[in-house]
Amino acid sequence: MNKNLIALAVAAATISSAATAAEVYSDEASSLAVGGRFEARALMADTATDSNKVSDKTRVRINVAGKTDISDGLYGTGFFEKEFQSADSSDDETRYAYAGIGGTYGRLVYGKADGSLGMLTDYTDIMSYHGNEAGNKLAAADRTENNLSYVGSFDLMGNNLTVKTNYVFDNGDNKDGYSLGAQYVMDMGLGFGLGYGEQDSGTAEKGKQLFGAISYTIGDFYFAGLYQDAENTSVYKISNADVNVKESSGYEFAASYTMGKTVFIATYNYLEDSDKNIDLRDSIAVDATHYFNKNFRAYASYKFNNLDENATAGINKAATSDEFVLGARYDF
User: Where would I find the Porin domain in this sequence (predicted)?
Assistant: First the structure.
């Protein structure tokens, strides 16, 4: 992997559990690995009726990854991941379930898989709990089912170019849509990307979304920015209610510093309904994560919420509350 992509992963403090997955089967052509995480999270925040209420956000993820060689330069692959919530089993979800083929020129899979814009929101979505409030994506550009997805990574002038594209078929809940994106990461520490998504909404107006991202890694420091401009997305939630947004724009800035086994991160998120001139997100968040080893970490995260209550926009006391989170995570 390109050394700057590694630096990005470390700065993000979101090392995939796949990195610690245990291989449970292997022969000359095939392998099967099992991984996941146990993550205890306690959230303190105001609700509509209580102040400083502590909520249990504990979750468990289990994944299984398989790969088999078909011929020189061609392989078959499959991946499944399920998340279980301790507080409310109705929030349990299948995060991934796909299979496909890969080789020298990339990987093509079908099922529940990532869209193409998550690659860009990952630039600033690096906190252990908070952040990514300005990175809401269309369903077709996010992790979703009925999804035909391609990703390829190539060497271009000695640097890494990654391209992603996907098409989501209408399944009743999600309408037809697609997204595409590209990122270019240079050895000198600079990375940048651009992406676009579009999706039918069931009306004459399609949802459209444009993302741009940039990052820079120098020594133990990492800096990144994300910008988005969208139309007819209708995907934002305030106080757990869907908000119909015709036009929106927003940005997120992130910075991290790695000191030994501890990573310190700060982000700023802002998102507005530019048609109604209403702030949808406005927050500063900070966290610290300590990695005891590759399998276990603990963290504290605090969000300073700058939103004001707005009955017209559905922004109530709970939506304007600061949040404090303590967490511990074991990867396997």
Answer: 7-308
Q: Which domain holds residue 314?
A: 3-331
* Rounded distance between C-alpha atoms, residue 253 and residue 229, angstroms: 15
SS (H, E, C) the chain: CCHHHHHHHHHHCCCCHHHHCEEEEECCCEEEEEEEEEEEEEEEECCCCCCCEEEECCEEEEEEEEEEEEECCEEEEEEEEEEEECCCHHHCEEEEEEEEEEECCEEEEEEEECCCCHHHHCCCCCCCCCCCCCCCCCHHHCCEEEEEEEEEEEEECCEEEEEEEEEECCCCCCCCEEEEEEEEECCCCEEEEEEEEEECCCCCCCEEEEEEEEEEEECCEEEEEEEEEEECCCCEEECCEEECCCEEEEEEEEEEEEECCEEEEEEEEEEEECCCCEEEEEEEEEEEEEECCCCEEEEEEEEEECCCCECCCCECCHHHCCEEEEEEEEEC
CA dihedral over 288, 18, 100, 174, signed as positive or negative: negative
Query: How many domains in the chain?
Result: 1
> Which amino acid appears at position 46 of this protein?
D
Model confidence over 38-96: pLDDT tens digits? 999 999 998 777 888 999 999 999 999 999 999 988 999 999 999 999 877 777 899 99
pTM higher than 0.85 for the full model? yes
**Which CATH number belongs to the domain containing residue 301 in this structure?**
2.40.160.10
CB 70 within 8 A of CB 76: yes
Burial (CB count within 10 angstroms: exposed 0-12, middle 13-18, buried 19+), residue 64: middle
Q: For the CA atoms of the chain, what is the radius of gyration?
A: 20
Q: And the tokens for 89? A: 């089993």
